[in-house]
Amino acid sequence: MAGLNIVVAASEVVGFAKTGGLADVAGALPQALAARGHRVTVIMPYYRTVRTGKNPPARTDHVIAVPVGSRKLACRLYGGTLPGSTVPVLFVDAPEYFDRDEPALGRGLYQQTMSGGYKSDYPDNAERYTFFCRAVVEAVAALGAAPDVIHANDWQTGLVPAFVKELLRSRPGFATVRTVFTIHNIAYQGMFGPDVMRLTGLPGWLFTPPLLEYHGHLNFMKAGIVFADAVNTVSPTYSREIQTAEFGCGLEGLLRANQHKLSGIVNGVDYALWNPATDALLPVRYDAETVFEQKPKCKAELQRRLGLPVDASRPVLGMVARLVIQKGVDLVLSASPGFLDLGCQIVFLGEGDPEYHNELQQFKARYPQQVGLYLGFDESLAHLVEAGSDLFLMPSRYEPCGLNQLYSLKYGTPPVVHMTGGLADTVVNATQESIDAGTGTGFGFGEYTAHALYETVKWALHLSRDRPAAFGEVVTTAMRQDWSWARSAADYEGLYRRVML
Question: Its family (predicted)?
Answer without folding.
Answer: Belongs to the glycosyltransferase 1 family. Bacterial/plant glycogen synthase subfamily.
